[in-house]
Design a protein that fits this description.
Layout lengths: L1 E6 L3 H12 L4 E4 L14 E2 L2 E2 L4 E2 L3 H19 L4 E9 L3 H10 L7 E4 L3 H4 L9 E9 L1 H14 L3 E2 L8 E5 L2 E4 L2 E8 L19 E10 L7 E5 L2 E7 L3 E5 L13 H12 L6 E11 L8 E4 L6 E5 L5 H18 L14
Parallel strand pairs: 1-2, 1-12, 2-9, 6-14, 12-19
Antiparallel strand pairs: 3-8, 4-5, 6-8, 7-8, 10-11, 11-12, 13-16, 13-17, 14-15, 15-16, 18-19
Helix pairs in contact: 1-7, 2-7
The protein binds flavin-adenine dinucleotide.
Length: 349
């Protein structure tokens, strides 16, 4: 019998599959390109600071070292590099925000925040309220990582490119299922926002969150070691030779998968008023983040059907959460360690 059937090969499914392979567990993957994959729109940024109050993001001191180690070992396995250490250059938009940055200098746990005085940046960036540098931050080459992992799965004949068909699922007993006539111990759903329609998990409080991004090509080389942040815009290196990702938006009402003209215009204005180099618009992307009401992921097995599991709800932080969640899940599945209540799919809803 095969140990696991994993549904979904976004960042959640991929990191879970990688952890399972490290633990010598057998698995197969079902993934459909029909659905929008939030991971293929993501910038892949791990930013340790969040919000206007500049607080350290949830569990960054645990998530970042785990993610850094995991992406390095995934890179070693696939003979590539997917993680780059970066600095965030934050450009405040008001005197109040500048004061907030000043107040937080040397006052943060885990995160290092300091004034940025780099000459090469100062003459290319427009700022009225100074510049600040934040570390540690990372950039993950999500699209390349997912494509390489998919090629690996295809070579090993571990992936079926199709939509999961619930009519082919037979729950035999609490320890096994059949899918399309093949026996598995468990099926784990890593479906991103499609999880809200899953008959086993649709009771969970998903809160879909639409996000857009534009891809720009700059004429001159901008310093790639930095992620630039100004107002609601994040600008980060995306792909060779000189493509940059600029986003994003957080939209809860209009979830149509169509790019909006207003988002595009707003971002273009923000970028031209901060970056002195010229650029061309190359693409406009839209995705739906699998966000949850309490902003925490869903991890665990179904109460009534323990042969059915979930790893979902990664929200705005898929790249930093996925490696840690995969380890917690495997500790639970294979070593009986409990899943923390805050991320359990059984927390009180
Ligand atoms: C604009 C934008 C920018 C973002 N930037 C960042 C960022 O910089 N850093 C960060 O950490 N996060 C970022 N995110 C959030 C991040 O994208 C998500 O947290 C993450 O991608 C969720 O991954 P996932 O694997 O759960 O879902 P997905 O990536 O959506 O993957 C789900 C997969 O399951 C497949 N699937 C679903 N249902 C079925 C089915 N029934 N049968 C077969 N296959 C199925 C889908 O086709 C898909 O391949 C961003 C999101 C957006 C929209």
């Amino acid at each position: 019998m095969i140990d696991y059937l994993i549904v979904g090969q976004g960042i959640a499914g991929t990191l879970l599959q990688f952890q399972l392979s490290k633990e010598n567990k057998s698995f197969r993957v079902v993934d459909s390109s029909y659905f929008v994959k939030s991971s293929s729109v993501a910038a892949g940024i791990m930013n340790p600071v969040t919000g206007r109050r500049l607080v350290t993001s949830w569990r960054a001191e645990t998530l970042f070292p785990v993610a850094s180690k995991t992406y390095q070992s995934l890179g070693a396995m696939l003979r590539s590099n997917y993680i780059t250490a970066k600095s965030i250059v934050a450009i405040p938009q008001s005197i109040q925000m500048q004061n907030e940055y000043e107040r937080r200098i040397n006052d943060m746990q885990y995160t290092m925040l300091c004034r940025c005085t780099k000459d090469n940046l100062l003459h290319r960036i427009q700022t009225s309220f100074g510049m600040y540098q934040i570390q540690p931050a990372y950039s993950i080459a999500v699209q390349r990582l997912l494509a390489d992992w998919k090629s690996y799965l295809q070579e090993q004949q571990l992936i079926i490119a199709t939509e999961f068909d619930f009519s082919k699922l037979q729950l035999i007993d609490r320890h096994s299922v059949y899918y399309d006539g093949v026996p598995f111990q468990k099926v784990i759903f890593c479906e991103g926002i499609q999880g809200q329609y899953n008959p086993f998990w649709q009771h969970l409080p998903f809160k879909p969150n639409k996000g857009e991004a534009i891809i720009l090509e700059f004429g001159n080389d901008i310093d790639k070691q930095y992620i630039y942040k100004f107002g609601g815009t994040t600008l980060t290196f995306y792909n060779h030779p000189n493509l940059w990702w600029a986003g994003s938006s957080y939209e809860l009402e209009n979830l149509a998968l169509t790019p909006s003209e207003s988002f595009k215009q707003k971002k273009l204005e923000e970028i031209t008023s901060h970056i002195k180099d010229s650029f061309e618009l190359v693409n406009h992307l839209v995705g739906i983040r699998p966000t949850t009401i309490d902003r925490r992921p869903f991890l665990g097995l179904h109460k009534k059907y323990p042969q059915i599991g979930i790893m979902n709800g990664l929200g705005t932080k898929g790249v930093s959460l996925a490696p840690w969640l995969a380890i917690i899940f495997c500790d639970f599945l294979h070593r009986n360690k409990p899943i923390p209540d805050t991320i359990s799919a059984h927390r009180a809803f």
